[in-house]
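Record pair follows.
FIRST:
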Amino acid sequence: MFKEMGRTNQAVLVILYVLRTVKAFEMEIIPAERIVAQIGGTLILTCNATGCASPSFSWRTQMDSPLGGKVSNHRTHSTLTMNPVSIVNSHSYLCTVICDERQIKEKSVKVELYSFPSDPIIEISPSLVAGEPATKDEHVIHEKDFFEDDSTNTETKIVTYTFQPMAEDIGKEITCVARLPIADMDFEPKERTSSQKLNANFGPQNTAITASPGNSPMEGDSLNLTCVTQSNPPAQIVWSKYLAEESIQHLIKNNVLSIPHVHFNDSGRYICEVINLVTNKTEKATVDIIVQGTTLLEF
């Protein structure tokens, strides 16, 4: 009796095992339901079938538009490859699977597109000149939205801003932030940023000459004339001297004019001319030098 019961239990277990190994016909699309793709990229949709020995696959758009991709069928799955993704791929794609010419299953996936391929580019006008109007791309003190633009074409958006840079703006960082705030779309990044340090050209300005040891050196002493100016980029400095007949004698191109041993004929008016070759601006400073002679005492 116990032997018979043991055989019966074993038979039941075998039947249950067989039932559990039989899979029903099912299908799925990967990614499921919704996918966000970037224009210019590659998108692969995969339609899988299980529980069917020889499934038959077909793809179409729900609007019966061209697929805009390449279909590749395999034994248990089919792929639809879009490379590159373009605006024509903005559809809901339907995969149909037929099993044994009797069972049919369908699922769809919605493809939504965006284009945000690179960081913004900051372009500064040929040269920023302090105190003069200039333009640069969108930055943190200026903002423009394109929400009203319903175009589905990929476009390059350009925003310009005019401001007057000052000398103290040199070294400051300007930042351009571009955002793509599309609601309910899961993609990254939704924000791209570029930064650039500002290098405003200015000057020359506040040009002055200092004489060491002074404007009235003794004959035989050394004399250093130093020309100081503010300029970006650094200015070119040219020294010259007025002659008696009101002509000009050009000397050296350096910020320091050094005379190791001055003589009486070194007296006169010295001119420091500074030239900013970028801004094409010039400024001058002058200094009068009178060389003193040694006085001899008579007894």
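SECOND:
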Amino acid sequence: QDNSFEQFIINYCNEKLQQIFIELTLKEEQEEYIREGIEWTHIEYFNNAIICDLIENNQTGILAMLDEECLRPGTVTDDTFLEKLNQVCATHQHFESRMSKCSRFLNDTTLPHSCFRIQHYAGKVMYQVEGFVDKNNDLLYRDLSQAMWKANHSLIKALFPEGNPAKINLKRPPTAGSQFKASVATLMKNLQTKNPNYIRCIKPNDIKAAHIFNNALVCHQIRYLGLLENVRVRRAGYAFRQAYEPCLERYKMLCKQTWPHWRGPARAGVEVLFNELEIPEEEFSFGRSKIFIRNPRTLFKLEELRKQRLEDLATLIEKIYRGWKCRTHFLLMKKSQIVIAAWYRRYA
């Protein structure tokens, strides 16, 4: 119920993860249809980039304001930090504070004077401003790290490399918020280079008990995880897509015209293949470089036909091999019989 700096940082990380989820699923999904020239009705979804900007903007973001308060001379308190937020972020549609002069929440009794509220992607969260400055300023001072580096114990010395006199940096050590922001940026950069798979966990109840299904709780989780928007985009679009070359290579055995070799463009081969299999036209679309299949059952049908065809081909290969082996054995026996008969007649 009481959210402070730690929960604020955790929720910031969750917002960034949600943002990359949107980028890699909803946005990328719809942009691919446009690139491939597929007829498509755009699905509206909420992009939480505006919330991430509220937190991490280098000039007007909450973390930037917090660092500015920690670094400026004079009396610095949590109240002065909140006052600065009220001045800079008061007009932001996802920021709420009762102390702001132009706030819409002056009479909101659910919002205490020493708090601010952010409307996250998952819903509104209220943060107690008490402790923000001290926790953000929780630094390992230079003299302490130098003392640890001078310790005789090798492990302690290895844990504080920044205390090495040869590596002394006269700059002020980064704040906790800055370090976390840099770590999140590194994580996002790493994830952008990957092809991640998402596993969404849904809690059926809050008491960790079996056989209890709380509909309201589950619906709330589905909503703030973005699953509804993802399902809408997926259902309106195509469940499977693949480049023409690997698609033809995988399923060419299902058509006499494409098996064993297709002489011509891969797209033309896929068109011949799908026409031969009599797949309904509404079940697929041809893009510039990929074939798009709308329903999973069509893909399952292709896989089932391929499985049956592989079994038939394996039976054919086995049949030919057995015939060759038996004929080879027969010819050897026949040759041996002729040799034995010739020698028998010779000495008979």
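COMMENT: The first strand starts at residue 95 and ends at 97.
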